[in-house]
Amino acid sequence: MVQRLLQPGEIEALDHNAIPRLHLPRPASLFEARARRLRQLAAGEVPGIPVEEALRGYLGLMAVVADAQHALVARLGPTGVVLPDQAALRAAHDHNMPPLPVSGARPANWQAVFGALLDVLAEAENAPPQLAPALAALRATPSAELEGIADAVLGSYPDGADPLRAPFVAAALQVAWSMMAAQLDEAWAQPLMTGTLCPVCGSHPVASVVRIGGQSQGYRYLHCSVCESEWHMVRVKCSCCEANGKVSYQGLVAHDADPIAENKQAAKAGKPLDKANDPTKVARAETCDDCWTYRKIFNQEHDFHVEPLADDLASMLLDVLVTEAGYSRASGNPLLWLRENQ
Questions:
Q1: Where is the FdhE central domain (predicted)?
Q2: Bridging pattern class, strands 220-224 and 283-288
Q3: Are 203 and 226 in contact (CB under 8 A)?
Q4: Residue 341 clears pLDDT 70, i.e. is over it
Q5: Percent over 90 (pLDDT), the chain
Q6: Do 160 and 152 touch, CB atoms closer than 8 A?
Q7: How confident is the model at residue 277 (pLDDT cuts 50, 70, 90)?
Q8: pLDDT of res. 257
């Protein structure tokens, strides 16, 4: 394919201020980066996200799962999960609906993807000891029961999902949907009537992230929990009810952190103030006093390696504190399932 070079005058005519509305996933690198971030978090190497000791083992297990997702994507190839037929895609586009709806028919081979994921996990090196019995239980799950767990995962029904099996089913569904989403055209996909749901699959976002680089510099994107797409939503707007009058941000500040004192010391030493890489601004909860919900927001301006799903999973301390303040979480993390009554 030959790329046409832009001529003088055409470059100036480009809208360099246009905001990219949608970023489709890149499965070939996405899960590898997630595994790396999960291990970094588990090791306590992210100053802005303190991780309790009890959670570190689970983050390590999910890193093994992300590694398996990465290996499975490579085995399946770019078109290993087939898109719906063109008529269905066209109908969704014409009616301003998600082209890959999680509420519709699942890919015919999704259970094969699930089985392949278990095979890759069985080959994992340095896997935690609890993985082997978990894989045995997962392999023994009847097909109909797997479909029920998938219904709960895709419909975000905590009470319908077995906390032990749902993360593995969710991981397989992420592989399937992200591989389908990657085959779409970003310019073709349309925003939905509501900005709170993924325009590609209709799922809830797991968190939001402020991106850096290119035309996305400084803009906030919501990250889909299933297909891994990201779509733009303006800041200081609730990602649950879309109100903007009573939004605020709650963060974690380490006991030994004193940014004001640090800046004073820098000023005395004649050093420039470092407005970037502020650990207190890496992970925050965006709370809304209109709907009394919250969703976390991660800032790549203060940590280049933020990964919304991994960082959300690791920052449970923030969940505890914000929940104690009276806010309800807007949507869950597909790799962690807790029953409502627990």
A1: 197-235
A2: unpaired
A3: yes
A4: no
A5: 73
A6: yes
A7: confident
A8: 44
User: What DSSP character marks residue 2?
Assistant: P
The closest alpha carbon to 63, from 309, 331, 236, belongs to 309
In 3D space, the residue among 231, 233, 223 whose CA is nearest the CA of residue 186 turns out to be 231
Give the tokens for residue 306: 């933020």
For residue 14, the model assigns a pLDDT of 38
- Alpha-carbon distance of 238 to 194, in angstroms, equals 12
Does residue 61 contact residue 39 with C-beta atoms inside 8 Å? Answer: no
Pairing of strands 328-329, 220-224: unpaired
The candidate with the shortest Cα–Cα distance to 64, out of 133, 117, 115, 111, is: 117
Q: What is the structure's pLDDT at 339?
A: 64
2 has a pLDDT exceeding 90: no
Q: What are the C-alpha distances in Å from 42 to residues 32, 105, 135, 165, 234?
A: 16, 36, 22, 22, 31
CB atoms within 10 A of CB 38: 27
Cβ contacts of residue 182 below 8 Å, gap of 6+?
Answer: 24, 25, 26, 27, 78
Mean pLDDT over the full length of the chain: 88
For residue range 203-236, what is the model confidence (pLDDT) as tens digits? 999 999 999 988 888 999 999 999 999 999 998 8
| Angle separating helix axes 53-76 and 166-181, nearest 10 degrees | 40
> What totals of helices (H) and strands (E) does the chain contain, helices first?
11, 8
User: Domains in the chain, ordered, with CATH?
Assistant: 26-181 (3.90.1670.10)
pLDDT of residue 60: 96
Determine which helix (DSSP H) or strand (DSSP E) holds 286, and give its type and residue range.
strand 283-288
What are the residue ranges of helices labelled H in the chain?
10-13, 27-42, 53-76, 86-94, 110-122, 131-139, 143-155, 166-181, 259-268, 308-314, 316-324
